[in-house]
Amino acid sequence: MKAIHISSILERLCIQNVSGTSPSITSFSPVDGKAIAAVPITTRVDYEALVGKAGVAFSQWKQVPAPKRGEIVRQIGDALRLHKQDLGRLVSYEMGKSLQEGLGEVQEMIDICDFAVGLSRQLYGLTTQSERPAHRMFEQWLPLGIVGIISAFNFPVAVWSWNAAIAWVCGNVCIWKPSEKTPITALACQKIVSEIFNRNDLPQEISCLIQGDAELGKQMASDPRIPLLSATGSTRMGKSVAQAVAARLGRTILELGGNNAIIITAHADTKTALLASVFGAVGTAGQRCTTTRRLIIHESIYESFKVQLVDAYKQLKIGNPLDEANHVGPLIDEAAVNSYLEAIKRCKQEGGKFIVEGGVLKGDGYPSPCYVKPCIAEVEPHYKIVQQETFAPILYVMKYKDLEEAIAIQNNVPQGLSSAIMTLNLREAEHFLSVNGSDCGIANVNIGTSGAEIGGAFGGEKETGGGRESGSDAWKAYMRRQTNTINYSDKLPLAQGITFNL
Ligand code: UN1
């Protein structure tokens, strides 16, 4: 990966380096440890000014009919198509995920724009039958105002776009605080969308970008001018955001930790199960909310599946994620490497037996200290470490006897994002999806836990936070619902048959 290549990408995406001016955040690539560029930090004064401008932008944007707002989002989707290669590479370089996954992330952005364009003509409300004569009842969905978006480093652009594209067609304006670990991809997106708003004589502040640390996030959480805050990140962050927003009775959409499991039954197609498990566990170097962290395998196939798994891990190529021959790139930073090492240590202390050893990779082909080996440990489901989400490629495997037990193991963790069962048996599959089955927001059959399509509502239960983003009717969280009753008679009949005469 030559530096010159990245600098021409930055140039094409109109990214200027502000290094030297203060205060700023410098972004370092986990791929080679080099500084990519610096961006200015948003000060309190800048923030105040921006929220003011966002409010003004909202008063203009909400007047634009929803299908016309959709037309603007269509143009954003087209601009993303044009920049897909550059932006995908930048995502890969700044975040460390494989180029395939970087490009996939930009594709998610394009897809959600397309979805939002269609949605802009389908923000339907219900009509209701009134119990009173000559009355008409219906509901309508109206724009909410400023939507705050706090996104995480692992999906530095897609998760923002799920929120922003939907929020925009709903008539809202957005203020986005990306992770301070991935400020450059955020800036690139902001440039792309600002250009579209400019070209259409619309205020740029329909999309605002602020850069900073957790303090800035806290400022958003306690700001009553932001009626909805959508936050993706750790459960710890989510709890603090939820409390601050609840204290002012605002709304949140929370997408927090996962501890996702695949149940592999005796009736599984083991070839599919193997591929799904490995991609789920090592994709994005185990740094997806939807990463497969646990495999719960039927005892009758446990030993043979284990052998195949270990074999598959031997084929994994770890290295520069921009080199398409590699499957796994680096972790985001050294702090992530330390929590990976710590989790391995704690797993061993609790009795975990590593069938594929972990460790930090050094030497040729690993130009930063962030490359680690994906590893696999045999564990007991009750281990403390197994209850936790470690954002790294550590896969815990365990065995079960009957499906009830497997489902209990799967559900018996604090998180509830994604889950899957691998089986060709109809009874097992349906049981897994029934009221007695998975307790997660996402439950799949014969595909892994990660890689959700944008068309579904994305999110999870319990400590995952309960929010839903992206497809289906997730848009409803971005609007305010109004129930309307119109009396077109010359009388005033009261509901519930109450009489009131003067
Ligand atoms: C996340 O990790 O926060 O389902 C989002 C997936 C991706 C999105 C993950 N489409 O794995």
From TrEMBL:
Which superkingdom is the protein from?
Bacteria
* The entry's keywords: NAD, Oxidoreductase
Assembly mode? Homotetramer.
| Name recorded for this polypeptide | aldehyde dehydrogenase (NAD(+))
> Which residues catalyse the reaction?
255
Q: Which InterPro entries match?
A: Ald_DH/histidinol_DH, Ald_DH_C, Ald_DH_CS_GLU, Ald_DH_N, Aldehyde_DH_dom, ALDH7A1-like
- Note the CDD domains from the entry: ALDH_F7_AASADH
Q: Where is the Aldehyde dehydrogenase domain?
A: 20-483
* Family according to the record: Belongs to the aldehyde dehydrogenase family.
For this protein, the record's SUPFAM superfamilies field holds:
ALDH-like
Q: What is its EC number?
A: 1.2.1.3
Q: Which organism is it from?
A: Olivibacter jilunii
**N-terminal signal peptide:** none
| Keyword Zinc-finger tagged | no
Which PROSITE patterns does the protein's record reference? ALDEHYDE_DEHYDR_GLU (PS00687)
